[in-house]
Design brief:
The chain is α/β, with parallel strands linked by helices. It is built from four helices and five strands; from the N terminus they run βαβαβαβαβ. The protein has a five-stranded parallel β-sheet with strand order 3-2-1-4-5, with helices on both faces.
Length: 144
Amino acid sequence: MFKDSLLTGQRILVTGGGSGLGREFSEAFAALGAEVHICGRRGSVLEKTAVEIVEKTGGQIFAHTVDIRDAGAVDKMIDGIWHESGPLTGLVNNAAGQIMSPTNKLSTRGFDAVAATVFNGTYYTTHSVGRRWIDEGLKGNVIS
């Protein structure tokens, strides 16, 4: 449906890119020519995903182990991408926390863990990328 080179020249970060929808996004972006960066807490999952996507698409994919609930760690990761690969052109805020529990049994600690990933992690990542775009006069796209 799309030209194989549709996303050539694009550099996209996908949070939670090692599994589920994040993995699917990452594979599609790589197949369309983007340089893809995936991040998440489980390094072994990310590395396995990166290898499989490269084998399947021939694309460029880089794995970054980070907990997006940690603002400093997020900023360090984004800084590393910027200096090693160049500015991102896109960000997909896909990471989410899930706790398999009926609502009436979900603890406040469980809710806090989910909220920290979904709300805080999304903000930390968007803020870190967005302020660099603004400071450098660049345009970019965010999907959350």
